[in-house]
Specification:
Blueprint: E1 4-10, H1 15-27, E2 32-36, H2 43-52, E3 58-61, E4 64-65, H3 71-77, E5 86-91, H4 99-113, E6 117-121, H5 125-134, E7 137-141, H6 145-158, E8 163-170, H7 177-188, H8 191-200, H9 214-222, E9 227-232, H10 239-253
Parallel strand pairs: 1-2, 1-9, 2-3, 3-5, 4-5, 5-6, 6-7, 7-8, 8-9
Helix pairs in contact: 1-2, 1-10, 4-5, 5-6
Length: about 250
């Protein structure tokens, strides 16, 4: 199996960067643009700009937190987006109790009212099982290729047609090494992610891609799931940095 290859950016990058990155990603033959939704920034607004700059590229959110975004609000914000190219990734956000039930209810409500696919960002085993059973797929994150393959197989035991995507933080430029180290340390400090690393028996640093290992690590990840989303880590976050990242990825998989 060779997974589809996509890229991910932060909504904080803005609509202009999103549009230029989306156009470059489509030209490079990448599958999708995923946009992280973060407080103060709207992933769906960035995707709207990306939609206007592309014709075929899949447009995805990774993920919309349901503790601050309701199904009604998500659908209203996504109304102008092309549903046939849209993937609504949702997650629990900061919910601490009843998260699985709340996410499942949101996925059910969205699937009933849109032609867009709905996937669930899932770390723990309960959320992964619910995502496989009640949505169109899973969005995994911060895993080694081996663990990702195991979790994908577990999901397919529940729903053979489920789509398993995986976010992988990646740096293509040696100048971005400090940035990817900082990102790794930050996530390792979050309780939910720290628990996931402990449960998996790996360190956060084992689950990223550095410039010197770009080709081999991308190949390993693409053998483990249905879609690999390379979350772009750059030195400065400029549009030129993002475009150079896409060029480097295209060279690595050529």
């Amino acid at each position: 199996m060779t997974a589809a290859l996509s890229i991910g950016i932060a909504a904080a990058a803005g609509a202009d960067v999103g549009a230029r990155v989306a156009a470059a990603a489509e030209a490079a033959g990448l599958h999708a643009l995923w946009v992280n939704d973060t407080p103060g920034h709207d992933a769906l607004a960035v995707l709207a700009a990306a939609a206007g700059a592309t014709e075929r590229l899949v447009l995805a959110t990774g993920v919309l937190p349901i503790d601050r975004r309701t199904p009604d609000g998500i659908l209203a914000s996504a109304e102008a987006l092309p549903a046939d190219r849209l993937v609504l990734g949702i997650g629990s956000g900061q919910l601490r109790t009843g998260a699985v039930a709340r996410v499942t209810d949101a996925a059910t409500a969205l699937r009933a009212r849109t032609r867009a696919r709905v996937v669930v960002g899932a770390l723990g085993p309960k959320m992964r099982r619910a995502a496989a059973a009640e949505s169109d797929g899973l969005l995994l994150s911060w895993l080694t290729p081996q663990i990702a393959a195991t979790q994908a197989a577990q999901a397919r035991e529940i729903a053979p047609a489920t789509h398993v995507a995986l976010y992988v933080r990646a740096a293509a430029d040696p100048a971005a090494l400090r940035a990817i180290e900082d990102e790794t340390a930050r996530y390792a400090g979050y309780p939910a992610y720290a628990a996931n690393f402990a449960r998996s028996g790996v360190a956060a640093a084992d689950t990223v891609i550095r410039p010197e290992e770009l080709r081999d690590r991308i190949a390993a990840y693409r053998a483990s799931v249905d879609e690999v989303v390379l979350r772009v880590i750059t030195a400065s976050g400029t549009v030129d940095d993002h475009l150079r990242f896409i060029d480097a990825i295209a060279d690595a998989v050529a």
